[in-house]
Design a protein that fits this description.
Length: 93
Amino acid sequence: MSCAAYLDGNATPKSMSRAKQWTDEVENLYRFQQAGYRDELEYKQVKQVDLIDRWPETGFVKKLQRRDNTFYYYNRKRECADREVHKVKVYAY
């Protein structure tokens, strides 16, 4: 992703692929997509936040605010089951 696209806040993905296996990145993408966002970048653009609540032990997302202003709270441990991994979209900028 170019620095200019990242700074202006209007970055759009250039391509999308599906996750093949579980990783920490896929886990966090799963949480963002469950809350209705593409990824962390879109969440920060829409909600105008700099920091996202994360579990210190794992680094996984702890809490997200949906577009209708309700909150999703997530556990410390993995929530994306193996049968859900192929549904996660991984965007490239």
